[in-house]
Specification:
The complex is a heterodimer of chains A (298) and B (182).
Chain A lengths: L1 H16 L24 E11 L5 E14 L4 E15 L11 E19 L1 H4 L2 E13 L6 E17 L4 E16 L16 E17 L2 E14 L3 E16 L3 E15 L18 E10 L1
Antiparallel strand pairs in A: 1-2, 1-12, 2-3, 3-4, 4-5, 5-6, 6-7, 7-8, 8-9, 9-10, 10-11, 11-12
Chain B lengths: L11 H8 L10 H8 L5 E6 L4 H11 L9 E7 L2 E12 L4 E8 L5 E8 L11 H4 L24 H22 L3
Antiparallel strand pairs in B: 1-2, 2-3, 3-4, 4-5
Classes of the chains: A mainly beta (298), B alpha+beta (182).
């Protein structure tokens, strides 16, 4: 039942995007390129990310993002996005993180405002370089689906290089996210269950890279990877993980789509009691993610 | 064995490709481009050229970019038997698809003009405008072909501008290597 709704949700995002738009064309699911939209142009895009598997019980969550980006100048674009979340989890308790079963469909979960400034263009300057920044406010915890107010500021540096006249494209990213979070209290917690409601500060560092090849007109196939780690006030380094996976991209004059299969290959630091696979981080991350992006150009 | 339900999402991009409208923006046929660039010509004689490895290497050395097509499409434009120049149809990589364009070159190696025959990219339709194409007129292999300096860049179509600019220089190098003009 829930799977059917997920399919409906993803199909809805997809179809919603078909008549409309995209941001600067995303060749990858997770890592980003350094190009910006030309002045006066607009793109609308929809992401649907499915996160599943924590090693025990059931854990399936779908995040969606619907974003509009506008080229203020040839080097600077601004964007605004709304986010939703769906979750279905049971059969797993993680002290401090997952207080019990949770199930809901398509709930508004956050908003985001951002910008991107391009300093160097990859086809003009040999290598492309841009910085992206965003401010995000969310009210649902992406891990447990419980109420949690979160304010995040994100800064990323993005590099991109063309090879073989643009048939082969490399991108590299480094990002820093600072978060202030405040969880709401929950009634009827399991005995002895820790659910802190005091505000917390977190810093997340993400480093990613990807390489994609245009194997025929309109179609790119690539591989991307992302290392992510998070530091928190009380515990220091809380988690780290490495995801690696393939991306298939189709791009045409009016729209594009990217599908990425992104499993976690290794991870560490905090683990939940009884976690069987100790080579992955499965508290805030899942075993795998699948992301579908669809964008349309105006 | 049953597959997880999320695998049902996998065919969506393929569906996208099927439902996508075709944007076949072919603006000029070879014959039309020939008569636009050589309005006075009364004959176009096809030159059947197959490039050797040594010639490909020489073109790369002169142009700075690789000549991928070993069998380039070249015609000699004539008027009452007199050679007016060469007409070359070439393709370069655009962001999504190939850009097909034609270059007309005088017998002494000057660019007479270029015409974009097909362009299917999201941005950069300005590449077809005479204002942009006129920057190539009169150029020779010895001239600089610097994008954003000798030839203006078009925002959102930098890769297309880069590859067409490099492509025109490569066509001049091709004619120099094959016919030794200039």
């Amino acid at each position: 039942m829930f799977g059917s709704r997920l399919l409906l949700l993803a199909t809805g995002c997809f179809l919603a995007a078909i008549p409309g738009a995209s941001a600067d064309e995303n060749l990858f699911g997770y890592v980003k390129g350094a190009e910006t939209l030309p002045k006066g142009s607009m793109e609308f895009y929809n992401f649907a990310t499915l996160r599943s598997g924590k090693g025990q019980g059931k854990y399936v969550a779908v995040d969606t993002l619907h974003e509009l980006e506008y080229g203020v100048s040839d080097s600077f674009s601004i964007d605004g996005a709304i986010k939703t979340m769906s979750i279905d989890t049971h059969g797993l308790l993680i002290d401090g993180y997952l207080p019990g079963p949770r199930k809901f469909n398509v709930h508004p979960s956050g908003i985001e405002l951002g910008g991107k400034y391009n300093f160097l263009k990859p086809a003009l300057d040999g290598i492309g370089f841009a910085t992206a920044f965003s401010l995000e406010y969310s009210w649902i915890d992406p891990h447990s689906g419980r109420d949690k107010n979160k304010l995040s500021a994100n800064l990323e540096f993005l590099a991109q290089k063309y090879f073989m006249e643009g048939r082969l494209i490399w991108v590299g990213n480094i990002g820093l996210e600072s978060t202030y979070a405040d969880r709401s209290a929950i009634a009827n917690l399991p005995a002895g269950f820790d659910w802190p409601t005091t505000p917390e500060m977190e810093i997340e560092v993400t480093v990613g890279t990807g390489l994609t090849y245009r194997f025929m007109p309109n179609w790119f196939f690539g591989v991307e990877t992302q290392y992510q780690t998070e530091f928190e006030t009380e515990v220091g380094q809380e988690r780290w993980s490495v995801f690696v996976g393939p991306s298939l991209h189709y791009g045409s004059q009016k729209w594009w789509a990217t599908l990425t299969w992104f499993p976690q290959v290794v991870g560490g630091k905090e683990m939940y009691a009884g976690q069987r696979n100790t080579s992955l981080h499965l508290i805030e991350k899942t075993k795998r993610e699948v992301r579908l992006k669809v964008g349309i150009n105006f | 064995m049953s597959l997880p339900r999320w695998t049902l999402l996998l065919p969506l991009p393929a569906t996208a490709a099927i439902v996508a409208p075709a944007y076949a923006a072919d603006y000029l046929t070879v014959e039309q481009a020939q008569h636009v660039l050589f309005p006075g010509a009364d004959a176009f004689a096809a030159e059947h050229v197959t490039l050797t490895k040594a010639q490909l290497k020489q073109i790369k050395s002169l142009a700075g970019v690789r000549q991928r097509d070993e069998d380039p499409e070249i015609w000699q434009a004539r008027q009452s038997g007199k050679a007016l120049g060469w007409f070359v149809v070439d393709e370069v990589v655009g962001k999504h698809e190939y850009i097909t364009y034609a270059v007309a070159v005088s017998p002494d190696g000057h660019v007479i003009g270029i015409e974009v025959m097909s362009y299917r990219e999201t941005h950069g339709g300005e590449i077809r405008r005479a204002k942009w194409r006129d920057h190539f007129k009169g150029k020779t292999l010895g001239d600089a072909f610097r994008l954003n300096k000798d030839v203006p860049n078009i925002s959102g179509a930098t890769l297309s501008c880069r590859n067409v600019t490099d492509g025109v220089k490569r066509v001049l190098a091709l004619l120099k290597v094959v016919f030794g003009y200039g």
